Amino acid sequence: MSREWLDGAEMGREWLLAGVLVAVVVVTVALSVLVPGAIADRAEPEPDTAPDGRLTLEEISISDGRVGGETLDLAADVRLEHTGGETENASVELRAVALDSGLVVDSQRVALEPLSEDRELSVTDTLTVDRGGDYRIEALVYQEGRRTTVGEKEVRGTDALSPDYADSPVTFHRFVRHPLPVVEYSVADAGTNRSTLSVSTHLTNAGESTARDLEVVFKARQVDSGIVADEQSVRIDTIGPGETVTPETELTVPDQYNYHLDAVLWEEGVLLETARSGASLDPTETVPVNQTERSVELDVGDFESEQEETPAPMATETPEAVADDGGPGFGVLTALLALVAGLIVAARNRTRGD
Do 183 and 234 sit in the same domain of this protein? Predict the structure, then answer.
C-alpha cells in the first residue's frame, strides 16, 4: 500500500468519528427539547413536601374564672405565631406549678389543627388550683413530639379573689379623701360603770340592681382579752342601685376599757365583708385606731347624746348604837368608871379589916 492511501484512510476514520459525535449531539438536543425530563438532572432532588412551619410563642395572658371557697379556675390564653410551610402534629401543654413547692398542681394539653397559612392563633384552656397560693403558669409548644418553645407567667395573690357565692356589689363605704372610721360611734348614755354606745356604719350598693335581705352584725370586742362585751344585728331589706344606707344600733359595754367595734356584713347566710374601728373609753391606754398614747380626764357623761338631770343621791344617817334593853348605851367611858369605883370600894374594905 502506498503512504498516500494510508493517510486518506486515517483521515476518513477521523471524519467518521466527528460525524458520529455531531449526530449524538443533535439527537441529545432534540430529545431534550421534544421530550422534557428524558435526561436526568444532576441537581438535588426537590423534597416531596414543603418544609414544616414554625410556631413562635408571642404572649400568655391569665384571667380568673370560677372562684370557689377552696379552689379557683385560671383561664390561660396562649398566643402563637405560625410562619413557614404546613404544620401538623403540633400541641400546647399548659401547667400550673406552685411557687412554694415546685409541684405541678394541674396540667392540660391542647392539640392544634393542621396549619398552612402565616397567621396568629389563640390556644385557651383552664387550670384548677387552690385558692390562696402563688403559681407559675407554663406553656410548652410541641411539634412532631419535640418541644420547640416554652413560655411562663406568674400569678400571685389569689386569696384576694372573692368567691362567687360572696360576690356582691354592696360594700362598706370607705372614705378616701379623709381618714374617717368605717364604724362610727357616740356615747348615747353613761351609767354607773357602764356606757351605751350608738354604733353605725355606711353601706353602698355599687351595682345596677337592688340588693335584698342583708344583715349587719355589730360587736364590741375588748381589746386586751378579745371578749365580746355586746353585739346587736340590724336587718336591711333593700338597697337600691347607687344608694347608701346607714344601719345603726346601740351596744352597752363596761367603762374604762378600750374596744374594737366590728361590723360584719351578711347576705342570706354568707359572710360578705368585715370592717373594724376603735372605741377608747380608757384614757390611759393606747387608742387602737391611731396608736397614740393619751392621758386625760375623761368623763363619758360629757359625750352623752341626750343630757338628762340625774338627782343627787340623798345622804343617809348612821343610827346610834343601842343597848339590849332598848335604852341608850353607856359605852366605854361608863365601863371604866364602874371599874374604878369597884377598886375604891375593895381598897376601903381591906383597910377596915386591918
Answer: yes
